[in-house]
Amino acid sequence: MDMERQLYIPVILGTARKGRASEMAARFMLGEVSKRGGVETELIDICELKLSMEDAGESIKDARFSEQMRRADALVIVVPEYNHGYPGLLKHALDTNLKEYIHKAVGVCGVSAGGFGGTRVVQNLLPVLRELGLVTIFWDMNFSGAQKLFDDAGNLLDRAYVKRADQFLKELIWMARVLRHGRENVSLE
Amino acid sequence: MSDMDKMKCPDCGSEMNHHADKIDYDAAPESEAEAAEVVIEAHTCPDCGRTATRTARAEI
User: What part of A 109-138 touches B (C-beta under 8 Å)?
Assistant: First the structure.
């Protein structure tokens, strides 16, 4: 297995809502991914993707976003729960690619103001990710009471999330390595 | 798939690994029967990691 080339695991911030607590969760996850040796990461904020609302799907690809998805070995998606579902803009952005996702790993971080940590949005998003060709891991992150989880500077106030993120990322990186090996060496035939 | 069908990496020229077929639901089939016949083949280069795809007809 090729362990020399760095893994590329961007963090997608899946909401454009003003005052979003998900941004702090995404920046926390970005920091945790950044601590991993052999992993390159960056934040992809979907509100910065200037996608057309006049059409949908692959016909409105953002060239930079598509290249980031093509390069990616795995994705961390940070997604808030709005009315038990995922933000429409996140789906709009994800749908602009397809072949770029095939046999890549993905982990989902749910965010909610309430006590369930976005568990419902995670469950709702999983079949979408599967159909896109992504491979989901069985660890999730669940940021509950998100508005109170971070101070005004965005610092995490509950250190238990550090250990959870460690477990989440160990699983995600393992899956990313295995899938890279499979993509490059294990034939479908 | 025979070895003759293997894709060459557009970056380094190595033989690529065919690791997935994905139904292309957006292929705009002319009939309902054709809806699941167009697949996207996913190929990845074992030497540089470059990915590439091509469209094929599924044998169903």
Answer: 133
